Amino acid sequence: MMAQAQLHSLCLLTLYLTAGHGLEGKFSGPLKPMTFSIFEGQEPSQIIFQFKASPPAVTFKLTGETDGIFEIQPDGLLYHNRALDRETRAVHKLQVSALDAHGNTVEGPVPITVEVKDINDNRPTFLQSKYEGSVRQNSRPGKPFMYVNATDLDDPDTPNGQLFYQIVMQLPKVNDVMYFQINNKTGEISLTLAGSKELDPSKNPSYNLVVSVKDMGGQTENSFSDSTSVDITVKENIWKAPEPVEIVENSTDPHPMKITQVRWNEPGAHYSLLEKEKLPRFPFSIDQEGDIYVTQPLDREEKDSYVFYAVAKDELGKPLSIPLHIHVKVKDINDNPPTCPPTMPVFEVQENEQIVSSIGTLVAHDMDEENTVNSVLHYKIVDQFPKFPKDGLFLVQTYTGVFQLAKQSLKKQDAAQYLLTVEVSDKDFQTLCQVKINVIDINDQIPIFEKSDYGNLTLAEDTAVGSTILTIQATDADEPFTGSSKILYRITQGDDEGRLGIDTDPQNNTGYVIIKKPLDFETTAIHNIVFQAENPEPLVHGVQYNASSFATFTLFVTNVNEAPQFPQHIVQAKVSEDVAIGTKVGNMTAKDPEGLDISYSLRGDTRGWLRIDPATGEIFSAAPLDREAESLYRVQVVATEVGGSSLSTAAGFHLALTDVNDNPPRLAKEYTGLFFCHPLSAPGSHIIQATDDDLQSFRGPQFTFALGSESLQNDWEISKINGTHARLSTKHTRFEERVYNVPIRINDGGRPPLEGTVSLPVTFCSCVEGRCFRPVGHMPGIPTVGATVGVLLTTFLVIGVILTVVFIRLKKNKGKDNVESAQGSEATPLRN
Ligand SMILES: *[C@@H]1O[C@H](CO)[C@@H](O)[C@H](O)[C@H]1NC(C)=O
Ligand SMILES: *[C@@H]1O[C@H](CO)[C@@H](O)[C@H](O)[C@H]1NC(C)=O
Ligand SMILES: *[C@@H]1O[C@H](CO)[C@@H](O)[C@H](O)[C@H]1NC(C)=O
Ligand SMILES: *[C@@H]1O[C@H](CO)[C@@H](O)[C@H](O)[C@H]1NC(C)=O
Ligand SMILES: *[C@@H]1O[C@H](CO)[C@@H](O)[C@H](O)[C@H]1NC(C)=O
Ligand SMILES: *[C@@H]1O[C@H](CO)[C@@H](O)[C@H](O)[C@H]1NC(C)=O
Ligand SMILES: *[C@@H]1O[C@H](CO)[C@@H](O)[C@H](O)[C@H]1NC(C)=O
Ligand SMILES: *[C@@H]1O[C@H](CO)[C@@H](O)[C@H](O)[C@H]1NC(C)=O
C-alpha cells in the first residue's frame, strides 16, 4: 500500500517537473548544502527536491538520519515515504553524494538538513490526576507554596506547546472571594491578599481547586485542554508575637540569657532583630533558631522597658512575613541606695520657738521604682553637734523626714548652729545625710538713739527741697541685718505738713533728715520735732520701746521776702461781646506771703479793651468788645508788692467773648462785573451771595432777600435759592444802555434780626463776542480787553489822550456809574 501511494506521488512530480521548467532552482538544482522545512503529519509522502547530476556523476546516494523515511532516487529525486513526526525527530541531518558510473564519489557528501515543523497534534496533560499541598495561615500573598505541572509534546517554541493554567473553581468559596491564585505560565499556586488575611484553619482547614491547562497559550478556541484536582490543607501560623517578657535588672546570671523565642512556620528562615527606637546600646540578640537573648545585665533606672521587632527572612533576604513586636519590661530590684539632697538643707529656728514645733523637712531620694519597698525611706538622727546644752534636742519623723524640737527652746548663747547627721535607709541600704540648723535671734532689743536731743537748727524758708539738714543715729543690739535690728525712723511730732522725711542707710542704720516739701515761715516758723526709732519686726512679749528710742530736734524757719502769689496761674472769664463799657468782667486776687499790700496792673491789653482796679484786682471793660475781632482775649495781670522790694508775679486772665448779633448781613464779595448785553433779547438773571460776620448756627446763615424799594418791582425780581444765595432777574427787556444800581435788603433772621441794604451795580452794555463793549468816547469806561483791540490799534493816539481823561473822571465818579469789562465770574451774559 505504501509503495502504491509513493508511486502515485512520484508520477505527479514527474509530470510537474517536466512542465515547470521555470521553477528550476526551487524544486531542482545542482548538489549543494540545503535546508528544508516540512510540517509534520501532513502528507504521507512527498518529493522534497530534484538534484541535477553533472558529468561524470551519474547517480546519487543518501546517508544520515533517514530513519527509513527519506530516500533518493538515482536520478537525484529526494523524497520522504511517509508522514514526519516532530515529536520523534525534530531535525533530520542527511548527506547526499554524487557518484560516477563506477560508484566512486565525485561530489559530496553534501549536508542536507530537514527540519520538521510542529503542528498542534498533542494535548496538554497534567502529570498527576490529583495534587495535594498545604499552606500556612498568613503566608505572604503571591509566594508559591505548590505547583501543578502539565506537559505538551508540541514545540514549546510555538503556541502549540505553550500552556496556560487557570483555577476553574475553588471550594468552598466564601463571599465569592478567591483565596488562591495560579501563575498562568508556571502553574505555581499562591495565596491572594484576601487568602493571606482570611484563611484560618480553625474555621476551614481544607480547600479544593479545579485547575485547567490549555495549550495554544489558552488564547484560541482550538486549544486542547486538561484539568486536575488540587487539595490544599491550611496549617496554623506559628509566627506570632510572644508574651511580654520581664527581666530582673542587674542580673548576675551568665549572659547572654535566653528570654523568649519566635519561630517561622518552616525551617530555614533567617532571623534578625530590628530596633524600634535608636538606643545607645541594644542589649538583645537572636539566633538562627529564633531564640532571643538579653546580652548584658539591664538597669531599670536607666531604661525600664524595651520594644523591638523580630524579623524572619528567606535566603534572598526577603521578609517572610510581618515583623513581630517583642516587649521587655525591666523588673526593679533594690539596687540603689537613698541619696541626700544636692545641697545641704539649712533650717532656721527662732530662739523662743516652742517645743514640738516643726522646723523643716529633709527630702532624700531613691532611684528604685516608686511606691515599692525598694524606694520607701526611713529617717533617723544618728548624731547632733554640738551636744550642748544636751543631746537629743531634735527628732525626725521616721517616714516623713519632718524635724521637730524635742526637748526645749534653743538659745543662741548656747549654740548658734547645730549640725545633725541623719541616717536615711531603704530596705537594704543606708545613707548618711547632713542637716544644718541655725538658731536665729529674736527682737528683744530696742533701738537706742545716740543722743536724746539733736539741738537747734535755723534754716531759711527757701532752702531747696531735697537738702539733707540733719543726720541722726540709733543702734540696735539684735542680730544685724534682720528685721529685729533694722531701724525705721519716724517723725512723731512737729511736722504735720510732712515737709521732712528720713532716709535710712541699710548698712549702719544712719538716718538722713531731708526736706521733702518747701518750708514755710508763714505757716510754721518753729518745728519742735520728735523722732522715733522702731524695728519692722514686733518686739518680743515683755519688751517695749522706752524714751531711749526717741530724740528731739528744733527747726527754726526764717522768713524770706517772697513775691505775691496768685491762687491760679490762669483765670478764665466769659462775657457777652456787647457789654456796656465799665462792666466788671472778672477779678484777680493775689496774696503776699509777707502780707504786704498789692497793686494790680494789666500787661498785654493790646486792644485797650480792659481796665483793672489797682487795689482790688477787679477787671472792667474799657471799650466796646468785638468777638469778631478776637473771640478769646488773653491778657496778664501783674501783682506787685507795694513798698519793700516790689516783687511781682503775673497770672493769665483769659476773657472769652460770647457772640451777639451785631453785624448786618452783606454781600460776600464786591459784585462789580454784573452785566447784561444790550438790548436785552430775553429776561436774564445773576446769582448773588451774602455773608455775616456773627457766629452762625450749625445750619449756617439763613438770610432773606428783598428789593430795596417797591418801585423796583416792575423791573426786577429777587428770589432766594438757599440760606446764602439769591437770584436777581430782570422782569422785561426794556432796559437802557447804562448802569442800574439795584438796592437789595438782606436780613439775617437773628435775635434781634439785623438787616443790611446793599446796592448792586448791574450794567447794560453792547456786547462783542459776549463781552461788554462800548464805542470809544461814547461812554466813559475802561476798554474791554481783547474785544476792543482792533479799535484800539487804529485810534491808539487818540485813546492815549482820552484815557488820561477817563482815569481822572473815573476817580471822580467811582461807585456811581463805573463801567467794567465782563470779567466777573458770577456773570451769565446774554447774547444779542
Ligand atoms: C514541569 O515539568 C516539565 C517537564 O517534566 C519540567 O521541564 C518543568 O520544569 C516542570 N515545571 C516546574 C515548575 O517544575
Ligand atoms: C497571565 O498572568 C500574567 C501575570 O500574572 C498576566 O499579566 C496575564 O494577563 C495573564 N494572562 C491571562 C490571559 O490572563
Ligand atoms: C547592681 O547591684 C549592685 C548591688 O547589688 C550595685 O552595687 C550596682 O551599682 C548595681 N548596678 C547597677 C547598674 O545598678
Ligand atoms: C535752742 O533754742 C531754745 C529756744 O530759743 C533755747 O532756749 C536753747 O538754749 C537753744 N539750745 C541750744 C543748744 O542752742
Ligand atoms: C554709714 O554708712 C555711710 C555710707 O556707707 C557713711 O557715709 C556713714 O558715715 C556711716 N555712718 C556711720 C555712723 O558710720
Ligand atoms: C530703755 O531700756 C534699755 C534696755 O532695754 C535701757 O538700757 C535704757 O536705760 C532704758 N532707757 C530709759 C530712758 O529708761
Ligand atoms: C473775686 O472772685 C472771687 C472768686 O474767684 C470771689 O470769691 C471774690 O469775692 C471776688 N472779689 C471781688 C472783689 O469781686
Ligand atoms: C446755595 O446755592 C448756591 C448756588 O446754587 C450753591 O453754590 C451753594 O453751594 C448753596 N449753598 C448751600 C449751603 O447749599
From TrEMBL:
One GO cellular component term of this record is: catenin complex
PROSITE patterns reported in the protein's UniProt record? CADHERIN_1, CADHERIN_2
Name the domain of life: Eukaryota
InterPro entries per UniProt = Cadherin (IPR039808), Cadherin-like_dom (IPR002126), Cadherin-like_sf (IPR015919), Cadherin_CS (IPR020894)
- In the record, what terms sit under GO molecular function? beta-catenin binding; cadherin binding; calcium ion binding
Note the topology in the membrane. Single-pass type I membrane protein
Keywords (A to Z) from UniProt: Calcium, Cell adhesion, Cell membrane, Glycoprotein, Membrane, Metal-binding, Repeat, Signal, Transmembrane, Transmembrane helix
Against SMART domains, the record matches this protein to: CA
Q: State where the protein is found.
A: Cell membrane
Q: What sections of the protein cross the membrane? A: 785-808
Which residues does UniProt assign to the signal peptide? 1-22
The biological processes this protein is annotated with in GO are: adherens junction organization; calcium-dependent cell-cell adhesion via plasma membrane cell adhesion molecules; cell migration; cell morphogenesis; cell-cell adhesion mediated by cadherin; cell-cell junction assembly; homophilic cell adhesion via plasma membrane adhesion molecules
Cadherin domain location is: 58-126, 127-347, 341-449, 451-566, 567-667, 681-777
What is one Pfam family matched by this protein? Answer: Cadherin
Q: What is this protein called?
A: Cadherin-17
